[in-house]
Amino acid sequence: MVVKSNAHDGLKLFGTTGHHPLHSFAYKAEQTGAVTILRSVEWQVGREKITAVANFDPVELDGTTVTKASVANMGVIREKGLSIGAKILVIKSNQIIPFVEKVLEPGDTPIEAPTHCPVCGEPLSEKNDVLFCLNDECRGRLVQNIDHLCSKRVLDIRGISESTIEKLIAMGKVRTVFDIFALTKADFLEIDGFKDKSAQNAVDAIAKGREDVDLAHFVAACCIPGVGLTVGEILSENYA
Predict the structure, then answer these.
(1) Most CB contacts within 10 A, which of 95, 146, 198, 239?
(2) In terms of DSSP bridges, do strands 2-4 and 64-72 run parallel, antiparallel, or are they unpaired?
């Protein structure tokens, strides 16, 4: 059930986030969860943040087998009282994203925050329970930044996966975010799985992605920490 403001200018009055309008909200049916055991936590490198992923015994949720779920950061881990070996209730948030709802029985091993980046090994910074890798040359951050640039929401460069990006970096073809625009068909042909047509498609997608880019998407593509498409749109509205 969706509850929506009946004000004729409700969208303007309440505004929006970068994700959804604020003039309405939804009530959803209670979701059925599954009980499992938390076995480990792995730490993943994002564009800047280091996020925690809970690994647990496989459970069936809405017709799929689920073995992991994001638990965001140390603040969430502490708030929920997560520990290795804990019995946990897992649901699918919005019937899509696996989510650790709560702890049913505590485990026996505390979860410790990492002190160094799991990819580059540089010391991490913590602010408001969130861990950050501040190394601009971190390979993990570079992968995520290029993946962000290629995403549908930014430049919509299709056919270039995280795996492909990692291979290009390992080959020395890409050292910065914008090196992707210098890639050639020959570069892609050096990657296992790429043939003449797929390599040409990748080059064409890159060329198309940089055509007719407006200011908002250009700003988002620059991969500036804390600056995405929403900020790009604000800048575009005021300065374009």
Answers:
(1) 146
(2) unpaired
